[in-house]
Specification:
By secondary structure, this protein is an alpha/beta fold. About 45% of the residues lie in helices and about 20% in strands. It has 3 domains: about 1-80, Arc Repressor Mutant, subunit A; about 95-165 and about 295-330, Periplasmic binding protein-like II (D-Maltodextrin-Binding Protein, domain 2, 3-Layer(aba) Sandwich); about 165-295, D-Maltodextrin-Binding Protein, domain 2, CATH 3.40.190. GO terms for molecular function: DNA binding; DNA-binding transcription factor activity.
């Protein structure tokens, strides 16, 4: 019967899937290979289907096993985290909170909230995992963290996004760049400048990719002499000249490298103001974009099917209360002169 599936079966299944070998998985679990093999066979008998395709050289997940693996990981992660929290509370430690967030949130938003949290709950522990937006969504979906804070760009069925604040997009360039002295810059003005950018796995990269897609669709309709009212409403920022700036001469996966490329004079880039402030230096300037004004929406990302521990819920409530007000004082255009 399915009700006879145990944590022992789940841990054995995950170990074999991750190791790709019964021998290595047995060593990792402290079992003998025959014992582990028997456990997996028993699990397969219970569910009524093979979870692995076995050959003389390798062990690979079957189609059913591949589908079940992320579920098994979430179940074990939830169970282990719950036990850790119970153990911590029984020892008077207050429990542990695990949060994944974008770098700009970790450095500009959470420190002030953490001060208040630890003042009220000195026995609680907190682990912060720095990730890009895509990684935050994945970590929440897999149950590896209590909740995440990042941009809203990936729709997943079990994920809830609760908005916290919006962050204006702008140009980041060297302080001696012609655009640096401007108060605002239109998107179409960027077309003739070399561009360096983030990949689509980041929240910012996803926003730019969306703009490119919108612009290319408008261009196709325009070239076909379409009379769709969407064309009439389209911003000039989505016409061919501005689309060219979205084709980076250099693409990277993190803002540290990105801003180093900008500081070296390789090109300009586009970042949300909060992310740009994290990398602020005497070599860089931030200029807000207009026509259209584009924003990144930052929010709390959580699993609908997961309830938080008491201490994690307390930290979540602090974030929901204080995070929306923190960026407001820092929305002015910045420029650190050389």
């Amino acid at each position: 019967m399915l009700s006879s599936v145990s944590l022992r079966h789940l841990r054995a299944f995950i170990a074999v899937a991750e190791c790709g070998s019964f021998t290595r998985a047995a060593n990792m679990l402290g079992l003998t290979p025959p014992t582990l093999t028997a456990t997996i066979r028993q699990f397969e008998d219970i569910v009524g289907m093979p979870l692995f395709d076995r050959t003389t050289r390798q062990v690979a997940l079957s189609a059913g096993g591949a589908r079940f693996l992320p579920v098994a990981r979430r179940l074990i992660a939830d169970f282990d985290m719950a036990l850790e929290d119970l153990d911590a509370q029984s020892k008077g430690l207050g429990g542990k909170v695990v949060v994944a967030a974008a770098p700009s949130v970790l450095t500009r938003i959470l420190p002030q909230i953490i001060v208040a949290f630890h003042a009220a709950h000195p026995d609680a522990s907190l682990r912060l995992d720095e990730m890009n937006a895509g990684e935050v969504h994945d970590a929440v979906a897999k149950g590896e963290v209590d909740f995440g804070i990042a941009g809203d760009w990936r729709a997943l069925p079990d994920i809830h996004f609760q908005p916290l604040f919006s962050d204006t997009m702008g140009v980041v360039c060297r302080h001696d760049h012609p655009l640096a002295a401007r108060d605002q810059v239109s998107w179409h003005e960027l077309a003739d400048h070399p561009f360096v950018g983030l990949g689509p796995e980041s929240g910012t990269g996803a926003i730019l990719a969306q703009l490119v897609g919108q612009g290319e669709r408008i261009n196709r309709l325009s070239s076909a002499n379409h009379t769709d009212p969407e064309i009439a409403r389209a911003d000039e920022a989505l016409k061919p000249r501005s689309i060219r700036v979205m084709r980076p001469v250099v693409e990277t996966s993190n803002t540290v490298t990105l801003c180093a490329m900008v500081a070296a004079g390789i090109g300009i880039t586009i970042l949300p103001e909060l992310a740009a402030r994290v990398e602020a230096s005497r070599d860089l300037a931030f200029v807000p974009l207009k026509d259209p004004v584009r924003e990144r929406h930052i929010g709390m990302i959580s699993r609908k099917s997961r309830s938080l521990s008491p201490i994690a819920a307390i930290f979540r409530d602090l974030v929901l209360e204080y995070a929306p007000s923190i960026p407001l004082a820092a929305r002015l255009r910045w420029h650190i002169p050389g």
